[in-house]
């Protein structure tokens, strides 16, 4: 292999993640040479708009997939939670590296714990999933839409636009901002997004050399947990308008998957825990259990609203 070209979005987080993967890769494959190819995606150009309005997460991936298929790059590093269920035909997830902390984290402006935020305090997050779950825990807080890169959100917190922000712990840790975290949200209170904290290295299906080499950075446990979560998400066919959270863990070799579907206003929330051996089977069973519990109604209503263009 010559010099591998690794595509990455240009945000500080994306670049850090890409460099981290290359570093892990080079540790295991001495002599491997790789360069980062920074890319702008359509998603990056509409960062200020709510994700639920700009047509979903595929926006961040399409252009990178085209570059892969046109052989302008050989691999691309993505946050797994931004990766759509269906990859472009001819591409595969060549590796899922070791997963970072999957939990959500709260940063309050004055450092007081989340539970001590006063009634009416403004919590910045645009995630329907975070709002749906946190509204049930603290119905007295005001949830304020807040988008942009991690540093933009931290700046808005420092400027007093909000009293607290909720972000993925993994992103903060990777950016060296882990010490800013006030506290981690227990998955009992707030289940993370599917794939949160995990990365995917995407490559061409037919590129045997790259695929063989990528096995060196593969983390089998991370792959299994992410597969269980993503199978559950795909089986729910939820789209990005429905609050969905899921977290799988390996316990004594078994998979334990917790998953939730809720209404954005927090008025209803269904949660299940499923255990088993096969990640895909566990994921499908969690989705079926959720639908049976009542989540089917929420999913159906959201689909009808989407069809009406609402
Ligand atoms: N939605 C954007 C996004 N995509 C990945 C991360 C963080 C890193 C990760 O979850 O792996 C973030 C920021 C956030 O949600 O706080």
Automatic annotation (TrEMBL):
Is the keyword Transmembrane in the record?
Answer: no
> Which coenzyme or cofactor does it need?
dipyrromethane
Q: Name one GO biological process term.
A: protoporphyrinogen IX biosynthetic process
Question: A Pfam family matched by this chain, by name?
Answer: Porphobil_deam
InterPro entries reported for this sequence:
HemC (IPR000860), Porphobilin_deaminase_N (IPR022417), Porphobilinogen_deaminase_C (IPR022418), Porphobilinogen_deaminase_C_sf (IPR036803)
Q: Which residues form the Porphobilinogen deaminase N-terminal domain?
A: 4-211
Q: How many cofactors are bound and how?
A: Binds 1 dipyrromethane group covalently.
**Pathway connected to this protein:** Porphyrin-containing compound metabolism; protoporphyrin-IX biosynthesis; coproporphyrinogen-III from 5-aminolevulinate: step 2/4
Q: Which residues carry this modification: S-(dipyrrolylmethanemethyl)cysteine?
A: 240
Highest rank taxon of the organism: Bacteria
Q: Which GO terms describe its molecular function?
A: hydroxymethylbilane synthase activity
Against PANTHER family, the record matches this protein to:
PORPHOBILINOGEN DEAMINASE
Additional comment = The porphobilinogen subunits are added to the dipyrromethane group.
Family affiliation:
Belongs to the HMBS family.
Question: What role is this protein assigned?
Answer: Tetrapolymerization of the monopyrrole PBG into the hydroxymethylbilane pre-uroporphyrinogen in several discrete steps.
**What name does UniProt use for this protein?**
Porphobilinogen deaminase
- Originating organism: Kyrpidia spormannii
Q: Which gene encodes it?
A: hemC
